[in-house]
Specification:
Chain lengths: ~525, ~500
């Protein structure tokens, strides 16, 4: 049986990179097609691993020895597969959208654009399946380098500035991570991600703290934890499909994914709790949530507001992981997916609005809901999901995040999570309001109501993702599968750490059956 | 331990061929090129042949003229020198073979002398790599230096002066080395490296220390170890591009190797006091070099000056590895010598294409290459990413091992210098990449196109080698590098 074998990981990672070659060297008119094909292959390959992983297996593949004792390893555990499914699945949809956007916006340098896009997704999949820190680092750096051309794509002064800042932040933090990895290797002689961590008991207090700082410095740039977040709003200068898939899903999620890997699979909850590293990280994440929300309120540029919203929701995920409770980790894993679905919808909408009307600012969107009802309908769904309305995907992850805070007796975290949901509502819902209920123009006339939607190749993808937002909010099978994966992550991390008895409530392994119809147990 | 004539051939072939190239070129126009290429190909083939032999059945020795050491000169091909010989001869062959059109363009009418000098340079470099005699090492340094001065001075305006500058500073370096070697002779009564090492323990430590410092300073000048690097940027910026393409990858690298060899094969077996002080000097000079080399490179306008400062930084990493002196550090030093040879060969050849084809001397004009020289740009990008240390390109591994070495020993300041220097490397590398790929340029169909095929092919081949070498790093470290390192146990070092 080929499908579902460990080789599928290599296939999923290789397909986008092969597509890069085709995009660059095959005839021009097929440029958009290769990425689409690769996306299909990658998503199928990832999906084929799902039954085995749900069954508790961890497919593993050794690729190459890079240094004595150090190998490139792919491993599909529940966390990695969740991320891989998210990235590859959304890439298919973005592939359609990207083609439409490129035509509608008359995008230049298309081969470079599509090639870098494919390489970025390939790198994200490599990050997802990385079985040890070295493999992770290689693809993490590849991700930085392959996203850079997309950030500077417009070749304006603003784009260069954003690109330089991005490189400085991302590669600079990469050096911190490299140092941390080399050090870890010296101390433990191992780099393998191990549920529950492998540093526990090997390093003493202050050294552990420095090591943790270096690791977090390394991953928190992509996770846009303040004060290392500023590259993300600047990177919004990139074409919108990039903002949608990479700056809301693949790249930034690679960052939070890295945070979860570091916490759950390198240090382990027990070791972290020992020296209080979790509290510092939780403090940073909490501050990011509050400050980011307040900044988002003041942005008039739609993409920038969405970017700050991303900053905020990434920190939800970081906070969930830093709570060091099983439900917190479940919530983080689920919110990683659910925020991705909702946010990509919002960015798709922003792109659709831009190519149709060339408006970028929220204050210019007044009354546009009547002209673009489908787009703004999807925007509404995405916004409500991010706010955390039950029945939409965003609720599920936030529910478990809140439960994680309760499990850890962390009232402050709980208050911040709930309070920031209100803030989310107050910076996203006004957009919906002015679009649909504009009142009258300053001249006292009604806003135009003729239909002017974006091309279908852009409209259909954004409707599909908004339907996905609903599906992952109501359909028991979808939520159940997603929950089972997240649950596997928490179960492995926390049972290995023997943390459950440590004052926290024992983790109840729940099946999908308990979670019907969006109603929670 | 086998006696063989193979090692000698490695430097005798280019030496003799140099005479033939000069004579042949005088008799038949163009003959010098083919003599040179044949000699370099033969040297490369022989060193590739010697390497497995050395690895399988131990070091190869030759006693020149049949005189046994300590009286006669000994040539030694051990795993380390055999590996270095491969690096030097292969890079020299690829560069000279590829740079043909550039040579014809830049040195029109003077090719004969240039080719003959290149062979002389290669002969000196190979001799430096495989000699086991301190005085012979000096002779080879002089052979390298004299031919290098000539290669620099062959350039246009300012080149003779830069050559003279190089000559004066270089001679100081060689003299310091020679005095140091003389001290060692006075202390031990021998010039054979193995011999000196065996007797150094009984020598006066003050004499040994003076000798050590002089030798470190002398070789430090040759390898452009900060702050002894001042001769290099100017020399490489005004010399003919082809001379820089050959010298930049090899001269400083082989000098670094010579330093490693003398430190660990001569002093390593001697008194520990001497050893420790010398290592400290080297490590700190390396740290400063890694730091300032990167920063100064970032500040340059001229591409070749930038690359020269980049070499200062990379040699700093090598010196760090040597100075930290554990297995990881030395592994990193050896790997980085090899990688930087390849990276600088690609980058200087590409800089030559930029200057000769596009008239581009400064980084800010590099956008003129955009879309017109895709292969050159791609090769340059690979080399720059390797310089930055992006895995799995070969430049990553040298940095990794040296960084690990500093972390093992808990020498945080050295590790920090390496990391900050790397940050500057990111800066100057992406300055170039941004120009090559992302800076708008007016469409002008009539403008110049990609460089000549052999030059570009040489760049692409070596860029591909950076990938291949990186991916086979495990094999290289286990089979080629580790067996060549000095016995670590002697210094109480962590394996």
């Amino acid at each position: 049986m080929i499908m579902g074998s460990p080789a599928m990981m290599a296939l999923a990672v290789a397909a986008p990179f092969v597509a890069v070659l085709f995009i660059l060297f095959a005839p021009r008119r097929l440029t958009e097609v290769w990425g689409f094909i690769a996306a299909g292959i990658a998503a199928l390959a990832c999906a084929s691993l799902l039954p085995a992983v749900l069954g508790g297996a961890v497919p593993e593949q050794h690729l190459l020895t890079l240094m004595p004792g150090m190998e490139l390893v792919f491993r599909a555990d529940a966390l990695g597969l969740t991320f891989a499914l998210l990235a590859s699945g959304l890439w298919i949809i973005t592939g359609v959208y990207s083609g439409g956007y490129a035509r509608a916006d008359n995008l230049k340098h298309r081969p470079r654009y599509f090639a870098a896009f494919a390489a970025s997704v390939g790198a994200a999949l490599g990050v997802a399946f990385a079985g040890n820190l070295l493999t992770f680092f290689i693809f993490y750096e590849t991700l930085t380098l392959s996203t850079y051309p997309l950030v500077v794509h417009k070749e304006s002064e603003k784009a260069y500035a954003a690109g330089r800042r991005y490189l400085l932040f991302a590669l600079g933090s990469g050096l911190a991570m490299l140092t941390a990895i080399a050090w870890t290797w010296q101390i433990t002689g191992s780099l393998d991600f191990t549920p529950g961590g492998f540093l526990a008991g090997q390093v003493a207090g202050p050294q552990l703290a420095v090591l943790f700082t270096l690791f977090i410095l390394g991953v928190s740039v992509k996770a846009a934890v303040m004060p290392l977040h500023s590259w993300l709003p600047a990177a919004m200068v990139a074409p919108t499909p990039v903002s949608a898939l990479l700056h809301a899903v693949a790249v930034v999620k690679a960052g939070v994914f890295g945070v979860m890997r570091v916490i759950g699979f390198v240090f382990g909850p027990a070791a972290l709790a020992d020296f209080g590293g979790d509290e510092i990280l939780a403090g940073l994440a909490a501050a990011t949530i509050v400050i980011g929300s307040l900044i988002a309120l003041r942005q008039d540029n739609l993409k920038r507001r969405l970017a700050y919203s991303t900053v905020v929701h990434l920190s939800y995920i970081v906070l969930g992981a830093a709570l060091l409770t099983p439900y917190g980790l479940v919530g983080s894993t689920m919110h990683m997916v659910n925020h991705g679905l909702a946010k990509i919808t919002l960015f798709f909408c922003a792109g659709a609005i831009y190519v149709t009307t060339h408006r970028e600012n929220i204050s210019q969107l007044t009354g546009l809901g009547r002209q673009m009802p489908w787009t703004f309908g999807a925007f509404t769904v995405g916004s409500l999901a991010l706010v955390g309305i039950p029945g939409l995907s965003g609720f599920v992850g936030k529910f478990f995040l809140a439960r994680g805070a309760i499990q850890g007796d962390d009232v402050i975290a709980l208050a911040i999570m709930l309070g920031a949901s209100l803030l989310t509502a107050s910076y996203l819902l006004p957009i919906v309001r002015i679009a649909f209920f504009p009142g009258l123009t300053p001249e006292g006339e009604a806003y135009p109501t003729h239909r002017a939607e974006a091309p279908r190749s852009m409209l259909v993808p954004l409707l599909v993702t908004s339907v996905l937002v609903v599906i992952f909010g109501v359909l028991p099978y979808a939520i159940g599968t997603q929950y089972e994966l997240a649950d596997l992550v928490a179960e492995r991390v926390f049972s290995a750490a023997r943390f459950v008895g440590d004052g926290a409530a024992p983790l109840v392994v729940e099946g999908a059956a308990g979670l019907g119809g969006g109603g929670m147990p | 331990m086998t006696t063989s004539n193979l090692p000698v051939l490695l430097f005798v072939i280019p030496f003799v061929a140099s005479l033939f190239a000069a004579g042949g070129g005088w008799l038949v126009r163009g003959a010098e090129k083919w003599v040179t290429l044949a000699a370099l190909a033969l040297t490369a083939a022989l060193s590739l042949l010697a390497l497995p032999q050395v690895l399988a059945s131990g070091s190869l020795h030759t006693h020149l003229g049949g005189w046994a050491p300590p009286i006669g000169i000994e040539v030694l091909l051990d795993p380390l020198s055999a590996f270095m010989a491969v690096v030097v001869s292969v890079v020299a062959f690829i560069v000279v073979a590829g740079a043909g059109p550039q040579i014809a363009e830049e040195l029109h009418g003077r090719e004969t002398v240039w080719y003959a000098t290149v062979l002389l340079l290669t002969s000196g470099l190979m001799g430096l790599v495989i000699t086991n005699d301190l005085f012979n090492l000096f002779v080879q340094i002089e052979v390298v230096s004299l031919s290098a001065y000539a290669l620099v001075a062959a350039g246009g305006r300012g080149a003779p002066r830069a050559g003279l500058n190089y000559l004066i500073i270089g001679s100081m370096g060689a003299s310091m080395y020679l005095i140091g070697a003389g001290f060692l002779f006075a202390a031990t009564g021998s010039l054979n490296i193995t011999d000196v090492a065996a007797r150094l323990g009984e020598a006066d430590p003050r004499l040994a220390l003076s000798a050590g410092l002089l030798i470190v300073a002398g070789l430090g000048i040759k390898m452009a170890l900060f702050p002894l690097h001042v001769w290099m940027p100017r020399a490489y910026a005004v010399s003919p591009t082809v001379s820089a393409s050959l010298m930049a990858p090899l001269v400083t690298k082989v000098s670094a190797y010579a330093l490693l060899r003398v430190i660990f094969w001569v002093f390593g077996a001697g008194t520990l006091v001497v050893e420790e002080l010398l290592l400290h000097v080297i490590a700190w000079a390396g740290a400063l070099a890694a730091l300032f080399g990167g920063v100064l490179a970032f500040l340059q306008k001229d591409i070749r000056r930038l690359l020269a400062y980049s070499s200062v930084g990379q040699m700093g990493i090598v010196a760090l590895g040597i100075g930290i002196a554990n297995t990881s550090g030395l592994t990193g030093a050896v790997l980085h010598i090899a990688s930087d040879a390849l990276m600088k060969a690609v980058l200087f050849l590409a800089a030559g294409i930029a200057l000769l084809r596009f008239g581009v001397r400064n980084v800010d004009e590099l956008h003129l290459l955009r879309g017109r020289a895709p292969w050159t740009a791609a090769a340059m990008t690979v080399a720059l990413l390797s310089l930055v240390g992006v895995p799995p390109l070969s430049g990553f591994f040298g940095k990794w091992y040296v960084l690990s070495a500093a972390l093992i020993e808990g020498r945080w300041a050295l590790a920090a210098a390496l990391v900050i220097g790397s940050l500057a490397t990111i800066g100057y590398s992406f300055r170039i990449i941004e120009k090559l790929y992302f800076t708008p340029v007016e469409a002008d169909a009539a403008g110049p196109r990609e460089g000549q095929v052999p030059v570009v092919a040489a760049c692409v081949v070596m860029a591909a080698l950076l990938v291949v070498v990186g991916l086979s790093n495990d094999w290289i470290v286990r089979v080629l590098v580790l067996p060549g390192l000095p016995g670590m146990a002697a210094f109480g070092m962590v394996p």
